[in-house]
Amino acid sequence: MLKFTIRRLLITFPQLVILSVLVFIMGSMMPGDALSGLIDPSIPAEAIQARREQLGLDNPWYIQYRDWIFAMFQGDFGTSIFHQRPVMDVIGDRLMNTVWLSLFSTVLIYLLGLPLGLVSGRYNDSLLDNAITGYTYLGFATPQFIFGLIILWIFGYNLGWFPTGGSVAPGLEPGSIDYILSKINHLVLPSFAIALIGLVGTVQYLRSGIIETKQKDFIILARAKGVKESAVYNKHVFRNSILPIAAFFGYEIVALLGGSIFIEMIYSYPGMGRLFLDSISTRDFSVANVLILFYGFLAIVGALVSDIILSIVDPRIRIK
Amino acid sequence: MGKYSWSKLMFLTMLIMVLALAACGGGSEEETSEEEGSGDTGSEESTEEGSEEETEEGSDDSASAEDIYNYEDFNKTVSNDGEVTGEGTLKVGLTSDTPFEGTLNFNLYQGNPDFEVISLFDEPLLTMDEDFQFTNDGAMTFEVNEDDNTVTFTLNEDVTWHDGEPATIEDYVYAYEVIGHPEYPGIRGATDGFTLLEGYNEYKAGEADEISGIEVIDEQTAVFTYTELAPSLTAGGFWYYLMPEHHYEGVEIADMAEAPQTRENPLGIGPYKVDSVTPGEAVVMSKFEDYWRGEPNLDGIELSVVSPSSVANAMETGEIDLAINFPTDQFPDVSEMEGVEWLANIEGSYTYIGFKLGEWNEDEGRVDYKPEEMKMGDPELRRAMWHAMDNDAVGERFYNGLRWKATTLITPYHANWHDDSVEVPEYDPDQANQILDEAGYEDTDGDGFRETPEGEPLEINFASMSGGDIAEPLANYYIQSWKDIGLNVQLTNGRLIEFNTFYDMLENDDPEVDVYQGAWGVGSDVDPYGLYGPDVDFNYPRYESEESTQLMEEGNSPEAFDVERRQEIYNEWQALMVEEMPVVPTLYRSFVVPVNERVVNYSIDLGFNEETAPYNWGVTETE
Fold first, then answer.
1. Which of A139, A164, B13, B201 is 20 to 30 A from B23 via CA?
2. What pTM, to 2 d.p., does this model score?
């Protein structure tokens, strides 16, 4: 397993290099740069041009790429032109918010999705199952941003139970108990908005997995041997039905860490999704490049995690 | 069995609904575009009254039937004149769908959201009147001496930094030294207030250690020597912010924007001081008792970023007291909100249609105006296109009157300089047709479109930017209007163009662009040279004429210190631009700000007024 992990990680390195070159070339093909948004009659074009030269934005892409790679090996990931601060600081601020949000949403997705899927698969075609499947259809059909707005309107504005925006109440001392509680309080609505829509896939996979598994011969055998019904489901059926979910677990985490643009916009939540989109639309490539590399790295790690989990839950799969 | 058929039925129902929805969407789109088309051509009256009637006719299915507003009917200052409690917290919402960048210093920031934040805890040293002329009501006063081209700046001795240090004129000089420094990480320092300062250019080039034109007399006074006194200097030209030298001790100029002195504990001289910054989200400020004008009326100000999708709700529930950058297009839907007063004022910007009339000559660094080679070179053609646009209707239908027909290239925002007597081509498709007929643009091959007088097919490419819900229907509307007078106008690339690409195409004189729709924000100084001078990049039409250049130069020469003379010059220039029309201004704009009724002394009026200065803001009810 260790060997496998190391080998997989070694393969990622050339993949990341290719990714970064592609990103750089495509970035240089895009019209405009980080300064072209500063079109303002009170700023003469020469001043912008001078700044461009100062930042090296005029150089061909391979020179910029070389400078960027060299700097990165010295631990310098560049400076965001738009935010006027080191890229790592910009990302760092947002990353922690996104990590918390995705952690909360993932926990909620599995906490709610697994029991729902279990129930609906076990009692399939019952009224309860119909209600749950009905909900999953609704969930599939509802765009996340509509749902986010609706629960914001109900629980944030009408009932006033939860804060309506931001990641923390302003003016609190970072690290204090109040600060942490306020952070959690701010996470409730956005993470529910993500989870209640995001869990429909999990429920459906689990449901169809269970329905399929429970008709298999070894389940009939288990029942014939007199195993208790709850044990049949919890031990035999569940474990065999969870494979597709386990296989997706790694990807799911990666997708959540990418940030949710809609949820971040609706809840004014400073996360990675907006940062990525903004850095592209403002041509702030120093940020965009690092983010793409980061996502690429995450995707590879996510696939790896999925493989490892799969090998744990399914002994038939052996990693060589 | 029954259950299966039930779920099948449900699936079928959903499918049908999806199809029905898709069909509806397509149908209504067609309907509206047809209606717009008929609205433009159908009426023979084609006057302003005519267009109003059409609006009423087409009222059943579009938003255009809603009320029409005029910013002049709104208050600019809150009407609440109750007793100020002297305490309470004002909650300011900054409407934005992205976090603010957090470069919290007037000398270093780049984005507008940061500017809005800084304005709450720092303040400009020089005040301006409604005509954007500096006045002497601020923390600093100035005296112009025309004999030797010097200006004496005197800083009020009561001005104190939030950390208790007294502010001195050295902090003002320091702002110039930072902005002019070769390593300064920004794009400021290229305007007249800097470049006309003696020795500034040498300092900027790194040839001198200090700016020779600055002489510090004492802690409060300094004399600046200029190479020339231009009228722009007293209209926003002098730099008007301090830079706290002591606060940035030991910080390299190149690193200032990212330093904690800027991001975590920014310093100012305003009535409220920063207590804490939640990066990108919120800033908490408290009363600064030693504020030089007097004690502020509030315990503090709390600023937070509010998403445009929920800002109206936040106003309604009282979560915020006022919303900066409120999305104007939401206003008609929420105008009846209880407990909220709406303020409105004119915005310093205009939308325009530009015509490509030449190319940029890189070697000479100026435009190469060659109308005879360009498709849009014929002024009669441009005049006909102007006549074909019904911008009154555009303003009413698309913007509920919050944008309205523009006339000249100097907006009423510069009320002192805007000439409303200039006659511009009115909406009149018949006259447009007539002009084209007379100029020899006739449909010779029977395809329904006019050819050039030489008999060549005339295909006009129109570039327009994407963004917002209105961009697409508006672009289609203009294209339709031009087709109605027989011009074959196509959207460049067949679709709307993203912002960066759009300006890239304009800058590089892409041959795919003949006509384009753009917008300009205007600064405090009225001087249009930065947009229409022959040697500036932003002159995207690539237009040049001796007369225009001469007028613009006269407008910013010492001669123009005489206001009446300057008005004359700019009136002449505005009339000239209507005559030559390298660009056609289409819409002027206004903005709205919702304010909770408990707020007093808040104003969005132009020009400084002691009564509505931030330290006098207050509330009549604390929660």
1. A139
2. 0.80
